[in-house]
Structures are given as structure tokens and as C-alpha cells.
Specification:
Blueprint (H helix, E strand, L loop, with lengths): L1 H21 L2 H10 L5 H20 L4 H19 L8 H25 L1
Helix pairs in contact: 1-3, 3-4, 4-5
Length: 116
């Protein structure tokens, strides 16, 4: 069960990383620039590197605590940049952004368990 959970967590990061780095790169870069993230392009590339390397390490069961830490850093930073619910005026969009924050809190909890 533990390994199945670890592989599902790895899949989450690797699959979303492929989508985001592939055909949503510019969209994420534009959103980061709009949010005022300094050095947005290098920050985005570093974020994708954390996501891919951490996800691959989890999938390969290699240095799992380090992989989980990398993914925690990625998740917290991505949440702070992309899910600023307190800045969203539209109630539905604010609710969706807050839901993403809650989901990411759960993901961080799962990664902490993997650090074990």
C-alpha cells in the first residue's frame, strides 16, 4: 500500500509537470509575471526541475525524504504564487482557488508522511 501511494504521488507531479511545462509554460509564466514574481522565467524553470526531479525520485524510490522535501518546497511555492484566493473577487473563482490551497495542504501532508 505504501509503495502504491508513493507511486500515485509521483504520478501526480510527473503528469502535471508534463502538461504544465509542455503546453502551459507560457500561461504559467504570464501568470507569474502578473503576480510580480521576480525572475519569473528562472523561477518557473527551477520549479519544474523540482517537480520533475522530485517526482522521478519518488517513482524510483530513491532518497524519498529528499524527494518529498523537494516536492513540498515546490507545492508551497506554487500555492503561494498561483492560488492567492484572498485576491480573487469573484466568489466562485475564490472558492476554487481556496479549494486548490486545501488540496495542496493535503498533498503536503502526504509528502510529510513519505518523509517518515
Amino acid at each position: 500500500m505504501h509503495m502504491a501511494g508513493q507511486l500515485l504521488m509521483a504520478f501526480l507531479f510527473l503528469a502535471t509537470g508534463i502538461i504544465n511545462a509542455g503546453w502551459k509554460f507560457q500561461q504559467h509564466l504570464d501568470r507569474m509575471i502578473d503576480a510580480g514574481v521576480p525572475l519569473a522565467r528562472p523561477a518557473l524553470i527551477i520549479g519544474f526541475a523540482l517537480q520533475f526531479v522530485g517526482g522521478a525520485m519518488l517513482a524510483l524510490d530513491y532518497r524519498v525524504p529528499l524527494a518529498a522535501l523537494m516536492l513540498i518546497v515546490f507545492t508551497v511555492a506554487a500555492t503561494a504564487i498561483f492560488h492567492r484566493f484572498w485576491l480573487v473577487d469573484d466568489p466562485l473563482r475564490r472558492h476554487l482557488a481556496l479549494s486548490f490551497v486545501f488540496n495542496n495542504v493535503g498533498i503536503v501532508g502526504g509528502l510529510l508522511l513519505l518523509m517518515g
